[in-house]
Amino acid sequence: MASVWARFGLGVRSGGSRATSPLLRPLYYQQGALRCHRTSLQRETQTSVTMSTTADQGATSGAARASHIESTKGNTAEAGELPSTPYADRNKGPILADALLPHVLPTLSGIVLEVGSLYAQHIEYFAQQTRETCPSIQWLPSDCTTDHFEVISQRCASLPHVLAPVQVDLMNPNWGQELKLTKPDVASDICAIYLANVVHISPWQTTLSLFQGARDLDKVSTVAMYGPFLEGDQSVESNLRFSASLASRNPTWAVRELEDVKEVARKQGFVLKSALEMPSNNKVLVFERNVDGGP
């Protein structure tokens, strides 16, 4: 699942303790340059899960989404348990059952890379549920730093078809090329990329780099992303309010226009195959590589 909650610095509970930091810590900024700051990235990402899945809490408006940040105090874990977020557990079922299984996974053979795995709740669930139905698929978790690799490895330890996590930083447009150099055997077999609640709680550069990296990984045929999107004059009011709330916290964040994402994908040789409706005004966008070549 996307590394989303811990990005606002609202605190992360693990083993009974809570780490805190300033509410607004800029994402990817260091000395005026855009970079991946792991602590802020986690905090901002998990906030996206909180706000973009407010239907789980019975909230339907953008204002309710924003206020929900203030009332939700982070990830919980009893002593000895692995950290987790309730939002990842709520949306993993619909994403798999209504989008990935019927529309994405049946045609794949190889490695599915998840970008922004955080605590690996999505990839653990997907791997468990598809062990028998999709035996030709392996799962590859990733995050922009190695901070949660131990948690990811522990959570997926009993799943032999989940590979060791790799570092993928979408602020680096050359991440695909670098993965080919550092993990050639793995990179050469990545057939699809999956991410959830990432592109609206990160700078626009992450969307640009996502599809550039997908293009650079030769076997990638599919990119599937979950989250809220705007649709011009037809945009849902709650998503417009949500986008305004995001921008008030960080001017580089926004719920992205679907047409803008489609154009970025097109320039890198990917076309939108499906825009699948999900709960709480979210979608799963499924892009496929243009087999004709060229944008």
Mean pLDDT: 80
Distance between the termini: 29 Å
Helix content: 25-40%
DSSP strand content? 15-25%
Seen as an oligomer or otherwise, the chain set is single chain
Task: Give me the side-by-side strand order of the main sheet.
Answer: 6-5-9-10-12-11
Can you count the helices?
10
Secondary structure class reads: alpha/beta
Residue windows where pLDDT falls under 50 for at least 5 positions: 1-74
How would you describe this structure to a colleague?
With 295 residues, the chain is α/β, with parallel strands linked by helices. It has ten helices and twelve strands. The protein has helices spanning 38-52, 62-71, 86-103, 121-129, 149-155, 175-182, 184-187, 204-216, 237-249, 258-267, and strands spanning 12-14, 17-19, 29-30, 33-34, 110-115, 137-140, 142-143, 166-167, 190-196, 222-228, 270-278, 282-289. It has a six-stranded mixed β-sheet, with helices on both faces. A two-stranded antiparallel sheet has the order 1-2. A hairpin with a 2-residue loop joins strand 3 and strand 4 (33-34). Helix 1 (38-52) packs across helix 2 and helix 2 (62-71) crosses helix 9. The longest helix is centred in the N-terminal third of the chain and has 18 residues, at 86-103. The radius of gyration is 18 Å and the shape is globular. It starts with 11 loop residues before the first strand and ends in a 6-residue tail after the last strand. Residues 1-74 have low confidence and may be disordered.
